[in-house]
Design a protein that fits this description.
about 20% strand, globular, 7-stranded mixed sheet, single chain, 18-stranded mixed sheet
Length: about 1300
């Protein structure tokens, strides 16, 4: 084993902050051996000088010496030629004690000299031309030399706050790369800040307490497009400067400590605002326009004059609000709308005139609620769990069916007699039949009952098949009723496999190996793949990724000839667990040492390495004598018990503390005479828990009070000194040292030891320990090496040696030790260093409403004004009846009768709109955009005249023009922008006024669809351009194409859409067009028009007509009926013959409801029959009725209130259907985006991957209307009427 010192040259980073190196404490000399050290942090070390050997660390790039006692910049730093970052924050350095040589380093890019004694800029600082971050805040600088910023033009961050600067040099205009400028607390009364005009990249500008007025707030701020953080606090501004309303990119605005009394109506001009600070001003109310800043997360209104009516009702729009602070105001209560903000975490209302709060305050998941200093305040009681309505989780809204039907204006149905007696009798009968003695008694016919039950199930399936065939008019006598496969009958157990395997396993092509250790699989490093020990067992996963993107797996488990039984069993068991986690269909293959299969050996190129022995330990208990090293601990603290290792000697005792001595078989507790009783009780509980968890309760617990010590105790403690007098040697102001948590990072050629960042307060949390890592916990007298279960073996070895170096590097008492602890087997002493990890006493800090409630608030009167409302009427309306074929045909003719001449059709191609060939009419591509110009004859009172007779007499006033803009589902917005800015004006010059209707794929209206006579075809991909068609007139197919013909609500809405080519997408109630490519010859492919057995004759004829229009003579078209498919091409072209649906009952029941809270109250609306996948909105919840299930679909950004109310609405809808359709009971199922089941997806025509909507249609419609109004007001011109010819 190599010496620990050999490890030092491989250390690249080290954080020794919060250790004591001052007051004559020895500085770690071992640093000089770290010749490859790249970064070093020595913050909070009480250092007053650095040793000279620091200058020999030539590779050092980052050095942090913040919060120390340095009086100057050490000269040894001038030798650090690789130094890039230097922090001397919060020391005692003056500008005369900084060597000019320091700035000759052209690599120096970050310099922090804040909180020092600088009275001027350091000499020659302009030579450091590579500086990008400069912090000189909190000094005594009075003037900025004009020449400084001539060279420092690469600065990105500049902080000059808390100085005495009264003007800024004009040379600051050269800082064109500056992004952050902080000038707080400087008397800049003479500075006009004209230099800001050149800082176009500026994002943060802080001008707090800089003598700003309405006249010297620079108006050039509006030319800074990236300004997102602005601070104008403490400037006595009487109002908000107008230029601030022009800053559209603002995310944080600080206007604290001014004299502002109101915000103007322009406050909605901050769409990106997230933090707004208005404390200590003169506000009495907030404008309603501010509530349109929907991204606001924090709102601070402390110390103003705001009352209840000063908070707008529209505050519920701030759904992302997390912090609302309105302390020291005139609030008597808060609006109920504020309690509907599900994201609210902090609510500060202290020093107001509060009487009470809305009862809904209990529904918020608040982390902090401050209502102190409100003398007349009465906390509302928590609502009872059983009350009218649906309970507190649903704001006490009555979701009962009777109440909601009453609100919808309908009569509640009569409730049937409760079948409780029938249910009870049926349950009793089932219990009697299921008694073990009857079920298993001899002669009870158990085996015959099993046979009969199987026959009944088979007969039911056959009867169902007969019913379907009789309805379709066809029956196949050769059809066999196949039983379920064995693997289909197996249900996978719902296990959490993340405890055994990493979630990324099986997602990358290659070989992954695990070894069995202590009953669990542990992943091996890739370098060890193919190396096996005879005493171990392994799991091997071979992952392959096909060109199509499908993943395939092969799983092996290898058994060594000397492996113990537990390893063999666990290897087989966890191999199955791995298969279940991946969802693989392969079998697990057993490979024994010396009898490996060729398939297994091929994985390692037939080169596997066998080593005698075992690398891992067995999970069986091994009987051995466990040696417990003697430890002596001092316990202190009442709220939290602090345990510290001390020297094993009588001189360590102190009468104000409790000590416990651990000698293995015996645990002594020594109580001092002056110790706290709570500490005494907690220490005993602590030792009892230690004995139970670590010693199995076998150690003897001995409690001794001061003055009652036995000879055996003194002997265990090392003996009682002669003339021993107990002295209270611990200082009265003793504070236990804070523990430091290091993380061991190991790369290929380096080691780093950074400190783990803690939350505010410096508390250690159990969650900081990750199972893949190794940590060193430095408690000064005891170092713990915590080893994660999934940590690498090399890191474990390095961590142990690094702990030895850390132990000797810092001056410690002689009794300091290193203790190893494994994840899941931590000692009680180690756990005590962390907050709330297996505490000795569980403390309940919660208080009920009764503890703080007072009298005098009329809750009913206050809550009546802000009662939350719902509208669920759509759930109780009948499903809209579908249009008959005759009515649809009549409507189609009506839509077309007023169309004058055919469409003028254009397609967006090569950044312009070009004429679309007539043979492509009705054929669309999902990646393209199209334009259709239509001219309609306005209906007149005289219907006896034919349009053809009036064609020569048609006037512009008798017609209307509509331009349809159709955008494919996957098309971008380029075509739409091109149309609005270029092509639209050309059409206006020719046509005059017209209406624009934008249509998105599968969201077309009936009028548009009627013009295609049910021949509306949508292809996937992008249309071939004219140049591509000329270059290659005939393009051969590379894969099978499949089109699905389907309509909803009306036959006018018939679409033929390309879908994934698989036989699983077939259904007997629809027609499909399948094109199978041929490799050679004049015939490009075979087109099959597949007619389902339940298809209407009109739809079958339509499918043939569509295929004839889609394909030319280069294809062979065949019409085939279901059941007569050619095996050689049809099923082969679709990949294989897979089971498919024989019916589409969901088409006769499906309904889609939108559940939204956008308008401040919960409302359910129905999207009528012709809905598509893009109607599923991310911000809302949707309800889909399929006739068998009611799916609750949750959008990714839906609020928790919408989810709760949507769930209640779904239950209410199902309850309502039980009375309307008792023969078709529905089941409620939950699904989320990207995880929808097949029963959900098949209700949407041509389901594919989700996408974001291409644009906001409502805004577009408003835009179109405004444009039309402008066009109507413009003078009309005479235009030719023969443009459509």
């Amino acid at each position: 084993m190599m010496s620990p010192s050999v490890l030092l040259p491989y250390i690249y980073g080290l954080n020794l902050s919060k250790n004591e190196f001052g007051n004559n404490q020895q500085f770690p000399i071992s640093l000089q051996e770290m010749c490859n050290l790249r970064w070093l942090e020595l913050n909070h070390t009480n250092t007053n000088r650095l040793p000279e050997f620091i200058g020999n660390l030539k590779s050092l790039e980052k050095l942090s010496l913040s919060h120390n006692n340095l009086l100057d910049v050490p000269f040894c730093l001038n030798n650090l030629t690789s130094l890039r970052s230097l922090s001397l924050r919060d020391n005692h350095v003056s500008h005369t004690q900084i060597s000019a040589r320091l700035f000759n380093n052209q690599d120096l890019s970050i310099l922090d000299l804040s909180h020092n004694n600088l009275q001027a800029f350091p000499k020659d600082i302009e030579n450091a031309k590579g500086l990008i971050v400069l912090n000189l805040s909190s000094n005594q600088i009075e003037q900025i030399p004009a020449h400084v910023f001539v060279s420092l033009f690469e600065l990105v961050y500049l902080n000059l706050s808390d100085n005495k600067i009264d003007t800024l040099p004009a040379q600051m205009r050269r800082l064109t790369s500056l992004q952050v400028l902080i000038l707080n607390n400087n008397p800049l009364s003479r500075a006009q800040l004209r230099q800001l005009s050149s800082m176009i990249l500026l994002e943060t500008l802080h001008l707090s307490n800089t003598k700003r007025t309405l006249y010297n707030v620079p108006a050039i701020l509006e030319v800074l497009p990236n300004l997102s953080d602005l601070d104008l606090s403490a400037n006595n501004l009487p109002s908000v400067p107008e230029v601030l309303y022009k800053l559209k990119a603002l995310k944080r605005l600080n206007l604290n400590d001014n004299q502002i009394s109101e915000l103007s109506s322009k406050s909605d001009s901050w769409p990106q605002l997230e933090i707004l600070q208005l404390c200590r001003n003169k506000f009495k109310s907030l404008p309603q326009q501010l509530m349109r800043c929907t991204k606001l997360r924090r709102l601070y209104l402390n110390s103003n004059q705001i009352n209840l009516y000063g908070l707008p009702r529209g505050i519920f729009n701030l759904e992302k609000l997390e912090v609302f602070s309105a302390a020291d105001n005139n609030l008597e209560t808060i609006p109920d709308a504020l309690c509907r903000l599900g994201s609210l975490k902090v609510l500060n209302l202290n020093k107001n005139k509060l009487l009470t709060l809305p009862e809904a305050i209990h529904f918020l998941q608040l982390k902090e609620l401050d209502v102190s200093d409100n003398p007349d305040f009465v906390m509302p009681p928590k609502p009872k769990e059983c009350q009218k309505g649906s309970g507190p989780a649903f704001y006490n809204i009555d979701f009962s069916l009777a109440n909601q039907l009453k609100l919808a204006g309908q009569v509640a149905p009569e409730q049937p007699i409760a079948p409780t007696d029938i249910q009870q009798k049926r349950a009793a009968r089932i219990r009697r039949l299921n008694k073990p003695e009857q079920r298993n008694s001899p002669g009870s016919g158990g085996s015959s009952e099993t046979v009969l039950r199987g026959m009944r199930e088979t007969a039911k399936r056959k009867h169902a098949l007969d019913s379907n065939m009789s309805n379709n008019g066809h029956y196949n006598d050769n059809e066999e009723i196949a039983g379920r496969r064995w693997d289909e009958q197996i249900e996978r157990p719902q296990l959490n496999y993340s405890e055994f395997f990493d979630g990324s396993a099986g997602h990358t092509a290659g070989i992954t190996c695990w070894e069995i250790e202590n009953f669990l699989p542990k992943q091996l490093e890739r370098q060890l793949n193919g190396t096996f020990y005879t005493g171990d067992c392994y799991i091997i996963l071979h992952t392959t990724v096909e060109l199509s993107g499908n993943t395939d797996w092969n799983i092996f488990f290898w058994i060594g000839q000397d492996a113990t039984l537990d390893k063999q069993a666990c290897a087989a068991m966890h191999a199955v667990n791995l298969r279940n986690m991946l969802g693989a269909s392969c079998r697990t293959q057993r490979e024994e040492q010396g009898d490996e299969s060729d398939e297994f050996l091929t994985l390692f190129n037939r080169r596997i390495r066998i080593i005698d022995g075992a690398r891992t330990e067995t999970g069986f208990w091994v009987v051995r004598d466990v040696e417990h090293p003697t430890r002596f601990y001092r316990a202190s603290g009442t709220q939290k018990l602090h345990v510290e290792l001390v020297e094993i000697a009588a001189t360590s005792l102190d009468s104000r503390y409790v000590f416990f001595l651990d000698v293995g078989p015996r645990l002594y507790i020594w109580n001092g005479k002056k110790c706290n009783s709570m500490t005494k009780a907690k220490t005993r509980l602590f030792v009892e828990k230690l004995n139970k968890s670590e010693r199995k309760g076998l150690s003897e617990l001995i409690q001794i009070n001061q003055g009652e010590e036995t000879d055996k105790f003194w002997k265990e403690l090392g003996g009682k000194p002669e003339n021993f007098q107990l002295v209270n040697h611990v200082a009265d102001d003793f504070i236990p040292p804070k523990s430091i948590l290091y993380k061991v990072d190991l790369g290929q050629e380096f080691i780093e030891l950074p400190q783990v960042e803690l939350e505010p307060g410096g508390l250690l949390k159990k969650e900081l320990l990750h199972t893949r890592n190794i940590y060193i916990l430095d408690c000064h007298t005891e170092l713990f090496v915590w080893i994660g279960k999934k940590s690498a073996r090399l890191v474990r070895m390095a961590a142990t040696r690094l702990a030895c170096e850390l132990l000797s590097m810092i001056q410690r008492p002689p009794h300091a030790v290193i203790t190893k602890t494994l994840e899941g087997a931590e000692t009680q002493v180690f756990k005590s260093k962390f907050d709330a990890w297996d505490d000795v006493l569980a403390v309940d800090f919660t208080r009920t409403a009764e503890n703080v409630s007072k009298k005098g608030a009329d809750m009913k009167k206050i809550l009546q004004e802000n009662e939350m409302k719902t509208n669920l009427t759509a759930l109780f309306k009948n499903r809209p009846p579908w249009q008959t074929r005759e009515a649809a045909q009549e409507a189609l003719e009506d839509w077309n009768i007023f169309l004058l001449q055919p469409f003028s059709m254009f397609v967006y191609e090569n950044k312009k709109f070009v004429k679309l060939p007539d043979d492509e009419r009705g054929q669309f591509y999902s990646h393209d955009s199209y334009l259709f110009v239509a001219r309609y004859l306005l209906p007149t009172e005289d219907e006896s005249m034919d349009n053809s007779e009036l064609e020569d007499e048609i006037k512009d006033s008798d017609t209307e023009r509509i331009v349809y803009f159709w955008q494919g589902r996957n098309a971008n917005n380029t075509a739409w922008l091109s149309f609005n800015f270029t092509f639209k004006q050309e059409l206006i010059d020719v046509l005059g006024d017209f209406e624009i209707i934008q249509l998105i794929q599968q969201q077309e209206n009936q009028r548009f669809m009627a013009h295609f006579n049910r021949k509306f075809i949508i292809h996937n991909g992008k249309r071939r351009t004219a140049a591509q068609r000329m270059q290659m007139p005939v393009q051969r197919l590379t894969h099978t194409q499949m089109y699905h013909i389907r309509w909803c609500y009306s036959t006018i809405m018939t679409r033929c859409i390309q879908i994934e080519a698989t036989s699983a997408n077939l259904c007997s109630e629809f027609c499909y067009i399948v094109t199978v490519p041929l490799d050679s010859g004049d015939i490009i492919g075979i087109v099959y028009v597949w007619i389902g057995n339940s298809v209407h004759p009109d739809d079958a004829l339509l499918a043939q007509e569509i295929s004839n229009e889609m394909y030319n003579d280069s294809y062979t078209i065949q019409v085939i009926n279901e059941g007569n498919e050619p095996e050689n091409f049809f099923w082969v072209g679709l990949g294989d013959r897979l089971p498919y649906d024989l019916t589409a009952d969901y088409m006769r029941y499906m309904r889609l409801f939108k559940c939204s809270n956008d308008n401040g109250f919960f409302v359910v609306t129905e999207k009528y029959a012709d809905f598509c996948q893009d109607d599923l909105l991310d911000d809302d919840c949707m309800l889909l009725d399929t006739g068998m299930y009611v799916f609750l679909w949750k959008g990714p950004t839906a609020s928790i209130i919408e989810v709760k109310f949507a769930a209640k609405s779904a239950e209410l809808y199902i309850q309502h259907l039980r009375t309307r359709e008792p023969d078709r009971p529905r089941k409620l199922r939950l699904t989320v985006k990207n995880s929808e089941p097949i029963e959900f997806r098949k209700c949407f025509h041509a389901w594919s991957k989700h996408k974001n909507p291409p644009r906001d249609l409502e805004k577009q419609n408003i835009f179109s209307i405004s444009q039309q109004e402008q066009q109507k007001q413009a003078p009309k011109k005479s235009h030719p009427t023969n443009i459509f010819v």
